[in-house]
Design brief:
There is one protein chain. By secondary structure, the chain is of the alpha/beta class. It has helices at 4-31, 34-38, 40-57, 64-84, 96-125, 131-153, 158-172, 180-199, 213-218, 282-288, 294-299, 314-322, 334-341, 364-369, 404-412, 432-446, 476-489, 514-524, 526-532, 556-561, 574-602, 619-648, 651-673, 679-704, 709-727, 729-741, 746-771, 773-790; strands spanning 224-230, 235-240, 261-266, 269-275, 304-308, 326-329, 357-359, 375-380, 414-425, 456-460, 464-470, 492-495. Strand 1 and strand 2 (235-240) form a beta hairpin. Helix 3 packs parallel to helix 21 (574-602), helix 7 (158-172) packs antiparallel against helix 8 (180-199) and helix 22 runs antiparallel to helix 28 (773-790). It is globular, with a radius of gyration of 28 Å.
Length: 795
């Protein structure tokens, strides 16, 4: 029978592992790119699956105290490898060395999770009648570690939280039986980690990829990093230098004098400009009239404006300079708001403190739900940097500000004579700007506007495309103002009422103006245009919020032919990276499932603890059962995180909340409900609960978008908790059945569950891209239905 202190040790070790997992997502997101952050969850559960093989192979159990101390060392080693071994993702397609380095990265990052899984697997196999308590301690400890990481990340950089995770692992070693000298060494290591965390030496600082925009900006002549700050959701850096000029879409006929600017970077991405000027400066008034959005202020002078995704104030400055009477700014990133009120308040001339500027306490989508007066203008600002469409690096990133529902809500916030403005980067081939148009057209269709061509104006500069949407049809005098504005600023029209062919492609000349041709085709036959285009231009929705996912299978030959021939990473498609990861997960998972079973079947019945005399022919059914549970958990977890990001605004916060609540609820379910409920009825109730959650979640999110953060946290927790409570039952109950019939299969069952979870995480992301978040969540319900059919409990 396992000791109570050892159960506590399992909880502490699990907390350390989840704290490191959450921190690892931040490390990879800051240092590299979104793909690396995404695979962490799958990597963690897959690595823990290896523990089943290790417990099976070893004739005697390893010491949990030693493994816990090794976990602390492995966390430190993983950070050292990730931070000091140079990895260049942009050379991945043609440099074999980078493939090896990437494998080392994932191996180093996976070892700590192997240790956590090993300790939990030992606890399960030695638990006796307390098996469900060990599993509950694993889940509840993980939930607490997740919450603790979020709290620490709000006041410490990620490298500091790595040290805190290692310290927790070393302290966890003292909960298990061990020699006094070993306990003293582990305690000393924990103290040293905490001292280093407090001292924060420079040699521990996170190193960014040389291809991150922040890294490139710091190489410019005269560039100076003036501030570096962080929160649980973002790292903020500011660079000043003489060469910083960011004015997207500025007319080629604009004056050569430009305002002084600094560059703000979030998680190393940017630049987002900070501008040192007053709205009343003659230079700003002149420049404001030379930017694409200036057209709307000619058409609606003195407008009351809502700016969505407002960056660091450039669009607010220019809107006021162009003639807006009042601007409202959502708070998409609190760190930016703090910067503009604090150290860079004087630099930006106290812009957000001006009486004609209102800062709203919600993100852009939440601001659309806040009650208040209607706006004359709702502007979707272009505050994110240019990303080549062929890189595919942002295919997997959700953006709930650029969806049909967001456009629809923005239209609802307009006054009767109001105008919506949206500017996006001009991609070659046309993609980003054209998807923005298809998304707007879908929103207009939902709004019941039958002749959208009469409500649209679209034009392009050298690098941007801008779309204006009026609630009422454009009038001839407004079209005359539009023509005059484009002539004065050398902008080329894409579509507007009365446009003639001789007005197209005059200034920013192209061999073939595909932007105009595609826009015109979408207005006459949108379905056929979208279906026949080389990229996926289907409108982004809240259920499929992947605005930058343009991949179609017909592109595969071209992508493969371009491997090693272009500078973009990942062969030009984030989707194909998912396919590669899915194949890799399967290749790793299958041996982790098959080898332990093969070893168990070869062990003679006389080998006491390892006897397989009770290994019934039903092992395949057990394999299906535990595989379905593992895949189902991640098929639920991943889409819940993605879906609830809309409600809670920030991905890191959402991941922490969903994981904490889900794991805590599952731990309670394992401890309280698993010993009391029959397995198959519990699985049936879980399947029904997940289906209801998937169907009800969009409405609940829409209901809560305008609420306070505390209220939204409660709503998210309430939405996740019932399913999580029931999700803790089937694994603990299934292990009890295995313990009673074939205890030698316990580590194998643990490994099967972890291996299928690794596959399930990647599969969830793939389903979300292809079929939507609701379909991915329903797939999780389907996995638990499969578990219901394969359950060892009699009906």
């Amino acid at each position: 029978m396992i000791r109570p202190r050892s159960i506590l040790g399992v909880a502490v070790v699990s907390a350390a592992g989840l704290a490191f997992e959450i921190t690892l997502t931040r490390l990879f997101a800051i240092q590299q790119f979104h793909h690396f952050a995404f695979v962490v969850v799958s990597l963690a559960v897959l690595a823990s699956a290896a523990s089943g093989l290790l417990v099976t192979v070893r004739r005697r159990h390893a010491s949990p105290a030693v493994l816990s101390a090794a976990l602390g060392a492995a966390i430190l080693l993983a950070y050292a490898v990730i931070n000091w071994l140079p990895f260049d993702s942009y050379n991945l397609a043609w440099d074999g060395t980078q493939v090896v380095i990437l494998a080392v990265y994932f191996l180093a990052a996976g070892v700590p999770f192997v240790m956590v899984g090993w300790i939990v697997a030992i606890g399960l196999t030695t638990a006796g009648g307390a098996l469900h308590r060990v599993y509950a301690a694993n889940l509840i400890g993980a939930a607490l570690g997740c919450a603790g990481a979020l709290i620490l990340l709000s006041s410490l950089p990620p490298e500091g939280v790595v040290l805190a995770s290692a310290a927790a692992a070393f302290l966890g070693s003292s909960c298990f039986p061990a020699r006094r000298s070993s306990a003293l060494a582990a305690g000393t290591a924990a103290v040293l980690c905490l001292v280093a965390m407090a001292a924060s030496p420079s040699w521990l600082s996170l190193r960014l990829s040389p291809y991150k925009p922040l890294s490139a900006a710091r190489l410019a002549q005269g560039a100076q990093l003036t501030i570096s700050d962080w929160s649980a959701s973002a790292r903020l850096d500011v660079v000043e230098g003489p060469g910083i000029h960011v004015l997207p879409g500025l007319s080629l006929l604009a004056p050569s004098t430009l305002p002084v600017q600094a560059a703000l970077f979030l998680d190393g991405d940017g630049p987002i400009p900070l501008t040192a000027a007053f709205p009343s400066d003659p230079l700003i008034i002149d420049l404001a009239g030379r930017l694409p959005a200036a057209l709307v202020y000619r058409l609606r002078p003195g407008a009351r404006t809502l700016l969505l995704d407002p960056g660091a104030g450039l669009d607010a400055l220019m809107a006021l300079g162009a003639g807006a009477a009042h601007v409202s700014l959502p708070t998409d990133e609190p760190l930016v708001d703090e910067l503009l009120r604090g150290r860079y308040g004087r630099y930006t001339r106290e812009l957000i403190m001006q009486p004609q500027v209102e800062v709203l306490p919600r993100s852009s989508r939440g601001a659309l739900q806040l009650s208040g007066a209607a706006f004359d203008v709702v502007q979707f600002c272009l505050s994110d940097p240019y990303h080549p469409v062929s890189s595919g690096a942002f295919s997997l990133a959700e953006d709930f500000t650029l969806t049909v529902e967001a456009i629809e809500q923005a239209l609802d916030r307009l006054a009767p004579d109001g105008v919506l403005v949206l500017t996006r980067w001009l991609q070659t081939p046309p993609s980003e700007s054209i998807r923005a148009l298809t998304t707007i057209l879908a929103a207009l269709d939902r709004a019941g506007i039958e002749r959208p061509a009469e409500h649209l104006i679209a034009f392009r500069s050298m690098r941007t495309a801008t779309i204006l949407v009026a609630l009422r049809a454009w009038q001839p005098e407004e079209i005359a103002v539009t023509r005059n504005f484009m002539e004065q600023n050398a902008y080329d029209p894409m579509v507007f009422p009365g446009l003639t062919e001789d007005e197209v492609n005059r200034f920013n000349r192209l061999p073939e103006d595909r932007y105009h041709a595609l826009a015109a085709s979408l207005l006459t036959d949108p379905s056929s245009t979208v279906a026949g285009y080389e990229f996926n231009l289907a409108p982004a929705t809240d259920d499929r919020p992947f605005f930058f996912h343009f991949f179609r299978w017909r592109q595969t030959p071209a992508v493969l032919a371009g491997l090693g021939r272009t500078w973009q990473p990942f062969g030009g498609s984030g989707y194909l990276v998912l396919m590669l990861l899915l194949g890799l997960m399967l290749a790793i998972s299958l041996p982790l499932v098959i080898i332990p079973l093969w070893l168990l079947r070869r062990i003679p019945p006389s080998d006491g603890r390892r006897s397989v005399s009770n290994l019934a022919p039903g092992w395949a059914r057990l394999g299906v059962y535990f595989s379905a549970l593992g895949a189902g958990y991640l098929l639920v977890e991943v889409p819940l995180i993605q879906r609830l990001t809309l409600l809670l605004d920030r991905p890191t916060l959402t991941a922490g909340v969903v994981l904490s609540v889900l794991l805590l609820a599952s731990g309670i379910g394992s401890q309280v409900l698993a010993p009391r409920l029959r397995l198959r009825p519990a699985l049936a109730a879980l399947t029904l609960t997940l289906c209801l959650t998937a169907l009800a979640l969009p409405g609940l999110i829409e209901l809560g978008l305008g609420w306070s953060l505390a209220a939204r946290l409660l709503l998210a927790s309430a939405a996740v908790f019932p399913a999580g409570l029931l999700m803790g039952v089937p694994f603990a109950a299934g292990l009890r059945k295995v313990e009673a019939r074939a205890p030698s299969l316990l580590p194998w069952a643990w490994g099967v569950n972890g291996a299928s979870s690794g596959v399930g995480g990647v599969l969830a992301a793939t389903l979300a891209l292809d079929a939507g978040l609701t379909a991915a969540l329903l797939a999780g319900a389907g996995a638990y239905l499969v578990a219901h059919l394969a359950a060892p409990d009699p009906a």
